[in-house]
Design brief:
By secondary structure, this protein is an alpha/beta fold. The radius of gyration is 33 Å and the shape is elongated. It has four domains: 2-18 and 30-42 and 187-261, Helicase, Ruva Protein, domain 3 (Orthogonal Bundle); 53-183, 3-Layer(aba) Sandwich (Rossmann fold), CATH 3.40.50.300; 274-363, Zinc Finger, Delta Prime, domain 3 (Up-down Bundle); 392-472, no CATH class. The protein is built from 22 helices and eleven strands.
């Protein structure tokens, strides 16, 4: 296989091995700039050259037909970095008979946008369509995105936006409703390897200099890039530039060269973005489903990508009450202990403590009875009038309060033989209302039996005092 070195400084301009390679007699100058990065030189120019995204660009697929028939609608291309969003826009530019205008949310402002839209409207009146490609559309604020609306609505422009962020959160709903969303996927490993092989053989890529790269090395490059085509090509370009040259003049890219370039896998994770919430959701739901293996995997995905361990520890504390609750009261104690450990020693030492609580919570008996009970109470508190506290359970520290019957009828539970009173503690409109219903798993089975005994006695269904039952912790009879 053949390849090209990374550009090197030579005089005042960047040179590459493509410049050094002898041109065939009478050969035309290359139709690309050899000083460009490999990823730019290898950007596909037709649909057939696009690697991956078969669910969108395969034969007969909707997006492919739209591009081939030059009837592209306003759309949002959503996907992780390096999966072909800009590539698809470039292919649209080459296929459409409309005026194609690239526009960057990073380098342009609202004034340039309005000027561009005015020109597009003039062109529409002359029968000329305009396709506007907006890279990183999520970087526009609400006011800037609103500027697109009337022009997209009246057909002055066909908007093609690209974003790595979830458009449900980052694109105005009014604009989003006028666009078709296409979801792009990370490149599968075999597709990324195919792209690397093409780069090694293409005249635009590594066709000018002998290069030897074995399949295992190509697969490692692809795996490390984690579905990012641009990162795959950048890594290969750097590897070729730093490769050793053997006696035959062949540049050899092997494990030793790659080890200096690839420190660790590039995990797709954004601590403030959608993937952050996707992964913590996966961790939470794996623990809820009593799957410690999956829970450990998602934990590692977060920690290895640089997540704050205290964030994970806080989520575990919440889980200990929300999903385990009184089925295992020790879960909350251990979760708090792990939070302390993470706070005191930090990463990477606290990874084992987090693994401990994640496995413990995964295997603990589960009960969401506390969470359900609180939401029932909160719903009543919000929906009903805030009734006065019943007189019998009001505090009466002053003479006036006693004269107003504050505390009248209060039964001190410790003074009763049963150590419990039949006094109601809820407002009259909620008397008899039940919120907490134990699930009966783990330690909550005892709670369930205790609660049933209390309710039976308080509501007069039995004369057996609750504390005298084994479920209520009564001492065994001699």
């Amino acid at each position: 296989m053949r390849g090209v070195m990374e550009p090197k400084a030579r005089g005042l301009r960047q040179m590459s091995l493509l410049d050094a390679a002898p041109a065939a007699a009478g050969a035309a100058a290359p139709a690309f700039d050899p000083a460009q990065p490999l990823a730019s030189r290898m950007r596909p120019e037709s649909l057939d050259e696009v690697v991956g995204q078969k669910h969108l660009l395969g034969e007969g697929r909707a997006l492919r037909r739209m591009i081939e028939e030059d009837r592209v609608p306003s759309m949002i291309l959503w996907g992780p970095p390096g999966v072909g969003k800009t590539t698809i826009a470039n292919v649209i530019a080459k296929c459409t008979k409309a005026e194609f205008v690239p526009y960057s949310a990073v380098t342009s402002g609202i004034k340039e946008l309005k000027d561009l839209m005015a020109r597009a409207e003039q062109a529409r009146r002359l029968g000329i369509r305009t396709v506007l490609f907006v890279d990183e559309i999520h970087r526009f604020n609400k006011a800037q995105q609103d500027a697109f609306l009337p022009y997209v609505e009246q057909g002055s422009v066909t908007l093609v936006g690209a974003t790595t962020e979830n458009p449900s959160f980052e694109v105005n709903s009014a604009l989003l409703s006028r666009c078709k969303v296409f979801v792009l996927e990370a490149l599968p490993e075999d597709e990324a390897v195919r792209l690397l092989r093409r780069a090694l053989e293409s005249p635009k890529g590594f066709g000018g200099v002998p290069v030897r790269v074995d399949d295992a090395t190509l697969h490692r490059i692809a795996l490390n890039a984690n579905g990012d085509a641009r990162l795959s090509l950048n890594t290969l370009e750097a590897a070729v530039a730093n490769a050793r040259v053997d006696e035959a003049g062949v540049r050899v890219v092997d494990e030793a060269v790659l080890a200096d370039l690839v420190d660790r896998k590039a995990l797709l994770y954004d601590k403030g973005g959608e993937e952050h919430y996707n992964v913590i959701s996966a961790l939470h739901k794996s623990m809820r489903n009593s799957d410690p293996d999956a829970a450990l995997y998602w934990l590692a995905r977060m920690l290895e990508a640089g997540e704050d361990p205290l964030y994970v520890a806080r989520r575990c504390i919440r889980f200990a009450s929300e999903d385990v609750g009184l089925a295992d009261p020790n879960a909350l104690l251990l979760a708090n202990a792990v939070w302390d450990a993470c706070h005191n020693i930090g990463m990477p030492e606290c990874n084992c403590a987090l693994a401990q609580i994640v496995v413990y919570l995964s295997l603990a008996p589960k009960s969401n009875a506390l969470d359900v009970a609180y939401h029932r109470v909160a719903a009543d508190a919000q929906a009903r009038m805030a009734e006065p506290v019943p007189l019998q359970i009001r505090n009466a520290p002053t003479r006036l309060m006693k004269e107003l019957d504050y505390g009248k009828g209060y039964a001190y539970a410790h003074d009763t033989d049963e150590k419990i009173a039949r006094m109601s503690c809820l407002p009259d409109s909620l008397a008899g209302r039940r919120y907490y219903e134990p699930a009966g798993l783990g330690a909550e089975a005892r709670m369930k039996a205790r609660l049933a005994a209390v309710r039976d006695w308080r509501e007069g269904r039995t004369d057996v005092p609750p504390f005298s039952t084994p479920a209520f912790g009564a001492p065994p009879k001699p």
